[in-house]
């Protein structure tokens, strides 16, 4: 986050010209004589700063020392885009400049601890020596870890021809010794030389801090800066060929600087990289390594504001982490609503899949998935918990298909939309706000009828969540395998942890939706008595093995134990393994009678080897979820009225009525004759 205001504390020994420097900046009259009082804090608005800059002489050259190299604005004019001080787009709204008295230790320490940046002033050899002997040790003892700008005041007292050598002798040793010192500048409060620049550098040290980006001891970019820049490169390498073309570089430039890039600037950057290491700028573009090297040069040459503008345009904070408001934007979600991908979200994930399917085989292999998740913390934790990619449709090689890819993101969004928002941000969704990639469904409502509570119909949802319950060995796992792959294994393996699968299915009429099936495993009792989990569930699939006489009683006992929770949830009973010999169930009540007493449809007899029966079951599960009144246990359904037949009867009745009126009229007419 950019600071809205900056507090600059000016300190140094007595008579170095601290107050004169501040007065000169605020355009008050001053002389070279020492002031005998401390000025009150001065607050300068951004507009006032603009006026000061306009009135500053255009011939004033900014001199500074950064990273062991003395540089001037004129020396680096080609790269810094300035030969004099200019107005940064990120200058804060207000800047407060605080004068101090070195003899008032209590007040001095208080102000230093409130500062955002420190302007440390000296004016002669004695006060220069005091920088390392007194001021820097004192600042460190206070725990003040702030950027420090050295200011060599009263430059009017020494010949200009000697400044360059003096700068090397004065500034460099201190910068090498104290990492807190970011820059040094020579100025004069008497003639106004570099006064505006002094406070500009102070502002710049806060707005564009060098220390998070560059390690002055190692002379290299810091690891977090490299990581952030690699992510930026990834986002703008649209074709993922490993190079930024001019078109891609231009997109980066437009986003970060709000203007088109020139071909000359692009070629200059590529040529600079080529002059350093040829392979970094080959292929007519800028490679990732070349991009990093370019920003290392920016940091070394005092152009690190360019790096910060790029990083902040891509939502990085001063700590080089992504802004929480960008990662987790607010989305107003009613507790009874669900969240799904919007058309914009679908398009983003489709485009992402097509971009990273480098071999165009219709599937993402492990390498392609690793490349895709490069700018993120890795595959979402939720995906590991749901056993990705075994939760979705993959091709014969085990690669993630587009169908499965979209299903997995639908599953993620349904179960944890905040995870989807976070990864949309990491992966570069940039439509202003990642919530545009999602849509919130209408809240689920409940109604009451015949003393029973049931859920109202659903019209705006495309994802439905089904719990699959039943006795061990009933065939639940085979049902999930058949749903996902169209095949199953004859080998029995008990399900310990809950297992989720998701797939799109086609409903009657051609509309598509997603169905999530979850086998609860050994956590079945805990889940069925957890009202929050049951509220997430749209329909329960009660399964039993029709060839096992002991299988159905498990469901009777289960429903009796959790009746208070389960009676409000739409239910479908399924007789699995229907291809085997049907057995009479050893139960107090047979399945057909049990479902009839609950006013539910008779159990659906299916087999994992009967593809058509499976498809009908999945459609029936979605129908029950969309129209809960038709599948809620204990809720007597009203007779379905044949609307077409009723329409014909009404038309016939109307016609008979008209004919009767006509007959009466004709009879009365004949009588009058």
Characterization of the model:
By secondary structure, the chain is an alpha/beta fold. It has 5 domains: 5-207, Rossmann fold, CATH 3.40.50; 220-319, EF-hand (Recoverin, domain 1, Orthogonal Bundle), CATH 1.10.238.10; 326-440, EF-hand (Recoverin, domain 1, Orthogonal Bundle), CATH 1.10.238.10; 452-630, P-loop containing nucleotide triphosphate hydrolases (Rossmann fold); 642-673. It is built from 26 helices and 24 strands. Strands 2-5-1-6-7-8 form a 6-stranded mixed sheet, with helices on both faces. Strands 20-21-19-22-23-24 form a 6-stranded mixed sheet, sandwiched between helices. Helix 9 (246-257) crosses helix 12 (304-313), helix 10 (263-276) packs across helix 11 and helix 17 (402-415) crosses helix 18 (417-426). The longest helix has 30 residues, at 643-672. The termini are far apart. Mean pLDDT is 83; it is low at 30-34 and 57-87.
Protein topology:
Blueprint: E1 5-12, H1 18-25, E2 42-45, H2 46-55, E3 63-66, E4 69-72, H3 77-80, E5 94-99, H4 105-114, E6 117-122, H5 125-141, E7 148-152, H6 163-177, E8 181-186, H7 195-207, E9 214-215, E10 220-221, H8 223-236, E11 243-244, H9 246-257, H10 263-276, E12 286-287, H11 288-300, H12 304-313, H13 324-327, E13 339-341, H14 343-356, E14 363-364, H15 366-372, H16 381-385, E15 400-401, H17 402-415, H18 417-426, E16 438-440, E17 446-449, E18 452-455, E19 463-470, H19 476-485, E20 499-506, E21 512-519, H20 524-528, H21 531-536, E22 539-545, H22 551-561, H23 563-566, E23 571-576, H24 591-597, E24 604-605, H25 611-626, H26 643-672
Parallel strand pairs: 1-5, 1-6, 6-7, 7-8, 19-21, 19-22, 22-23, 23-24
Antiparallel strand pairs: 2-5, 3-4, 9-10, 11-12, 13-16, 14-15, 17-18, 20-21
Helix pairs in contact: 9-12, 10-11, 11-12, 14-17, 17-18
